[in-house]
Protein backbone atom coordinates (compact mmCIF):
# COMPACT_ATOMS: atom_id res chain seq x y z
CA UNK A 1 0.00 0.00 0.00
CA UNK A 2 1.55 3.36 -1.00
CA UNK A 3 2.36 5.98 1.59
CA UNK A 4 -0.23 8.74 1.87
CA UNK A 5 1.63 11.99 2.65
CA UNK A 6 0.51 13.68 5.86
CA UNK A 7 1.56 17.01 7.39
CA UNK A 8 1.43 17.79 11.11
CA UNK A 9 2.53 21.26 12.27
CA UNK A 10 3.12 22.36 15.84
CA UNK A 11 3.00 25.87 17.21
CA UNK A 12 2.28 27.85 20.36
CA UNK A 13 -0.74 29.38 22.00
CA UNK A 14 -0.49 33.09 22.79
CA UNK A 15 0.55 32.14 26.33
CA UNK A 16 3.36 29.89 25.04
CA UNK A 17 1.92 26.36 25.31
CA UNK A 18 2.77 23.87 22.56
CA UNK A 19 -0.16 22.84 20.37
CA UNK A 20 -0.90 21.06 17.11
CA UNK A 21 -1.99 23.74 14.65
CA UNK A 22 -2.38 21.59 11.55
CA UNK A 23 -2.92 17.92 10.69
CA UNK A 24 -3.83 17.21 7.08
CA UNK A 25 -3.13 15.22 3.95
CA UNK A 26 -1.83 17.72 1.37
CA UNK A 27 -3.45 17.68 -2.05
CA UNK A 28 -1.18 16.59 -4.90
CA UNK A 29 -0.12 19.18 -7.45
CA UNK A 30 0.43 18.07 -11.05
CA UNK A 31 2.08 19.85 -13.94
CA UNK A 32 2.56 18.83 -17.58
CA UNK A 33 6.31 19.31 -17.22
CA UNK A 34 6.46 15.99 -15.25
CA UNK A 35 3.57 13.86 -16.55
CA UNK A 36 2.07 11.62 -13.87
CA UNK A 37 4.16 13.07 -11.02
CA UNK A 38 2.49 14.28 -7.83
CA UNK A 39 4.04 17.12 -5.82
CA UNK A 40 2.97 17.33 -2.18
CA UNK A 41 4.10 20.75 -0.95
CA UNK A 42 4.48 20.46 2.80
CA UNK A 43 6.20 23.43 4.39
CA UNK A 44 8.70 26.19 3.76
CA UNK A 45 10.34 29.00 5.68
CA UNK A 46 11.08 32.50 4.42
CA UNK A 47 14.51 33.37 3.10
CA UNK A 48 16.89 34.63 5.78
CA UNK A 49 16.81 33.42 9.35
CA UNK A 50 14.31 30.72 10.32
CA UNK A 51 12.12 31.66 13.28
CA UNK A 52 10.05 29.66 15.77
CA UNK A 53 7.55 30.58 18.47
CA UNK A 54 4.83 32.23 16.39
CA UNK A 55 1.29 31.43 17.54
CA UNK A 56 0.14 31.34 13.89
CA UNK A 57 2.84 29.71 11.75
CA UNK A 58 2.26 29.72 8.01
CA UNK A 59 4.28 28.06 5.25
CA UNK A 60 6.17 29.77 2.46
CA UNK A 61 5.77 27.57 -0.61
CA UNK A 62 6.55 30.03 -3.41
CA UNK A 63 8.79 30.28 -5.23
CA UNK A 64 9.44 26.56 -5.56
CA UNK A 65 13.15 26.79 -4.62
CA UNK A 66 14.11 28.70 -1.48
CA UNK A 67 16.45 31.66 -1.49
CA UNK A 68 19.38 32.05 0.87
CA UNK A 69 18.48 30.67 4.31
CA UNK A 70 14.96 29.68 3.29
CA UNK A 71 13.74 26.10 3.24
CA UNK A 72 11.18 23.89 1.52
CA UNK A 73 9.95 20.39 2.40
CA UNK A 74 7.94 18.28 -0.02
CA UNK A 75 7.13 14.78 -1.13
CA UNK A 76 7.32 14.01 -4.83
CA UNK A 77 5.83 10.82 -6.22
CA UNK A 78 7.56 10.12 -9.52
CA UNK A 79 5.48 8.32 -12.13
CA UNK A 80 6.75 4.95 -13.38
CA UNK A 81 8.76 4.92 -16.56
CA UNK A 82 6.52 4.59 -19.58
CA UNK A 83 6.41 5.67 -23.17
CA UNK A 84 6.55 9.44 -23.09
CA UNK A 85 3.28 11.08 -24.13
CA UNK A 86 3.29 13.56 -26.96
CA UNK A 87 5.10 16.63 -25.71
CA UNK A 88 2.72 19.54 -25.11
CA UNK A 89 3.57 22.98 -26.39
CA UNK A 90 6.62 24.25 -24.41
CA UNK A 91 5.02 27.66 -23.97
CA UNK A 92 1.91 26.09 -22.46
CA UNK A 93 4.03 23.97 -20.10
CA UNK A 94 6.09 26.97 -18.94
CA UNK A 95 2.97 29.05 -18.39
CA UNK A 96 1.27 26.31 -16.37
CA UNK A 97 4.36 25.75 -14.19
CA UNK A 98 4.80 29.51 -13.67
CA UNK A 99 1.24 29.63 -12.28
CA UNK A 100 1.26 26.36 -10.33
CA UNK A 101 4.87 25.86 -9.12
CA UNK A 102 6.60 29.19 -9.84
CA UNK A 103 10.36 28.91 -10.19
CA UNK A 104 10.40 25.12 -10.68
CA UNK A 105 11.75 25.26 -14.24
CA UNK A 106 14.22 28.13 -13.70
CA UNK A 107 17.32 25.97 -13.00
CA UNK A 108 16.62 23.40 -15.74
CA UNK A 109 18.72 23.24 -18.90
CA UNK A 110 16.93 23.79 -22.21
CA UNK A 111 17.72 20.43 -23.83
CA UNK A 112 14.99 18.62 -21.87
CA UNK A 113 17.10 15.85 -20.31
CA UNK A 114 16.17 16.95 -16.77
CA UNK A 115 19.65 18.20 -15.83
CA UNK A 116 19.60 21.18 -13.50
CA UNK A 117 21.66 22.93 -10.84
CA UNK A 118 20.27 24.74 -7.78
CA UNK A 119 21.84 26.91 -5.11
CA UNK A 120 20.47 24.69 -2.36
CA UNK A 121 21.56 21.99 0.04
CA UNK A 122 19.05 19.20 -0.55
CA UNK A 123 18.33 16.17 1.59
CA UNK A 124 16.60 13.67 -0.70
CA UNK A 125 15.21 10.54 0.97
CA UNK A 126 13.77 7.61 -0.97
CA UNK A 127 10.63 6.30 0.75
CA UNK A 128 9.14 3.97 -1.90
CA UNK A 129 10.23 2.46 -5.20
CA UNK A 130 13.48 3.22 -6.99
CA UNK A 131 14.78 6.45 -8.47
CA UNK A 132 17.95 7.03 -10.45
CA UNK A 133 20.16 10.04 -9.72
CA UNK A 134 22.38 11.08 -12.63
CA UNK A 135 25.35 13.43 -12.38
CA UNK A 136 27.78 14.89 -14.93
CA UNK A 137 29.48 12.59 -17.42
CA UNK A 138 27.11 9.66 -16.90
CA UNK A 139 27.74 8.99 -13.20
CA UNK A 140 24.59 7.50 -11.68
CA UNK A 141 23.22 5.64 -8.68
CA UNK A 142 19.88 3.95 -8.02
CA UNK A 143 18.13 5.00 -4.83
CA UNK A 144 16.05 2.49 -2.91
CA UNK A 145 13.90 2.98 0.21
CA UNK A 146 15.98 4.21 3.11
CA UNK A 147 18.58 5.96 0.93
CA UNK A 148 19.38 9.59 1.74
CA UNK A 149 21.25 11.74 -0.77
CA UNK A 150 22.85 15.00 0.33
CA UNK A 151 22.81 17.07 -2.85
CA UNK A 152 25.30 19.95 -2.61
CA UNK A 153 24.44 22.10 -5.60
CA UNK A 154 25.74 19.69 -8.25
CA UNK A 155 24.42 19.36 -11.79
CA UNK A 156 21.99 16.44 -11.69
CA UNK A 157 18.79 14.80 -12.92
CA UNK A 158 16.25 12.47 -11.27
CA UNK A 159 14.69 9.67 -13.36
CA UNK A 160 12.32 6.86 -12.58
CA UNK A 161 13.37 4.06 -14.92
CA UNK A 162 11.32 1.39 -13.13
CA UNK A 163 7.76 0.22 -13.71
CA UNK A 164 6.59 1.41 -10.25
CA UNK A 165 6.08 4.88 -8.76
CA UNK A 166 8.88 6.22 -6.56
CA UNK A 167 8.16 8.45 -3.54
CA UNK A 168 10.86 10.87 -2.46
CA UNK A 169 11.02 13.35 0.41
CA UNK A 170 13.03 16.49 -0.38
CA UNK A 171 14.18 19.11 2.12
CA UNK A 172 15.83 22.08 0.40
CA UNK A 173 17.78 24.85 2.09
CA UNK A 174 18.82 27.96 0.15
CA UNK A 175 22.63 28.30 0.07
CA UNK A 176 25.47 30.47 -1.19
CA UNK A 177 27.47 29.05 -4.10
CA UNK A 178 31.25 29.26 -3.65
Automatic annotation (TrEMBL):
Pfam families the record matches: Cupin_2 (PF07883)
Domain Cupin type-2, first and last residues per copy: 115-168
Annotated source species: Cryptosporangium japonicum
InterPro entries (alphabetical): Cupin_2, OryJ/VirC-like, RmlC-like_jellyroll, RmlC_Cupin_sf
The protein, known as: Cupin domain-containing protein
Amino acid sequence: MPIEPRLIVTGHTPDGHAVFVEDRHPEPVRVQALPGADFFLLWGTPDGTARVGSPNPSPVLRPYFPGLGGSRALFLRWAPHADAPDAPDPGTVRSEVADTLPGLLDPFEDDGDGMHTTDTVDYAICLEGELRLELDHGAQVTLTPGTCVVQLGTRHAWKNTSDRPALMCYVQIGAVRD
